[in-house]
Amino acid sequence: MKSTDSQVVDLEFSRKYDKQHAEAYHHKHRQGLLRVWSHVREEQMARRALRLAGNPQTVLDLPCGAGRFWPLLLEQPDRALIAADYSADMLTVAQSVHREIMQGRVQCLQTSAFNIDLPDSAVDNIFCMRLLHHIGRSEDRKILLEQFHRVARETVIISLWVDGNYKAWRRKRLERQRQKHRKTGGQNRFVVARRTIEEEFKASGFESLGHIDFLPLYQMWRIYVLRKC
Predict the structure, then answer these.
(1) Are 204 and 229 in contact (CB under 8 A)?
(2) 141: Cβ contacts below 8 Å, ≥ 6 apart
(3) What burial letters (b/e) apply to 73-103, b meaning 16+ CB within 10 Å?
(4) Fewer CB atoms inside 10 Å of the end CB: C or N, the chain?
(5) How many Å apart are CA 214 and CA 199, to the nearest integer?
(6) DSSP 8-state class, residue 124
């Protein structure tokens, strides 16, 4: 059955992705050596995560953005991909950019990660890159994780910023300084304590199969591979 949850989580950053921002997002990861290297490293991490998840046959890429990971996700020839995003403009740009590789294997869906418009156990795996670090409240993460548990049949791959590294320590210091001068609005990227997020995974019905760090002890990015209990 489809979700009937009427709870709505409004992330301020998600409103900015009109067509212009979606096109800029597509080009961002292809500009400059550092970003190109970062993208290559994230692809390496994602491949390892997919292997750890058992190379799932059906994957929900949510949020898919401008389709940055579609070529990687379609490397497995028999994999079916549902590409979903809250922004219709993101989906339009992604389909335009990746028209040649779609070949009837990609189904696009406009939906929210907090109320996914798919039936229970609809896909083998949910592939969620670069979303959770925008969610600062535990209660919001709970809604998202409950939806992931409902829609994923087996596993979830999810990236976020975690503590216990140099970049997280440095960001914490910078945020304290910014709070002193910030008059309006708030931060839209968050570091989550590893112990906290791992407890939230467990409370939502997942067990961790492992994690992969971007650069251990230095970078904040970590990918978790979770399995439904």
Answers:
(1) no
(2) 132, 135, 197, 200
(3) bbeeeebbbbbbbbbebbbbbbbebbeeebe
(4) N
(5) 22
(6) E
Q: Sign of torsion, CA 121 129 41 68?
A: positive
What the block records as the tokens of 135 is: 């969610």
DSSP label at 213? E
Task: Quote helix, strand, coil % in the chain, to nearest 5.
Answer: 40, 25, 35
State the sign of the Cα–Cα–Cα–Cα dihedral 150, 153, 155, 160.
Answer: negative
pLDDT of residue 102: 87
For residue 63, cis peptide bond before it (omega within 30 degrees of 0): yes
- This model's pTM is above 0.85: yes
Condensed to tens digits (0 to 9), the pLDDT of residues 155-182 reads 999 999 999 999 999 999 888 887 776 6
**What is the bridge-based pairing of β-strands 58-61 and 123-128?**
parallel
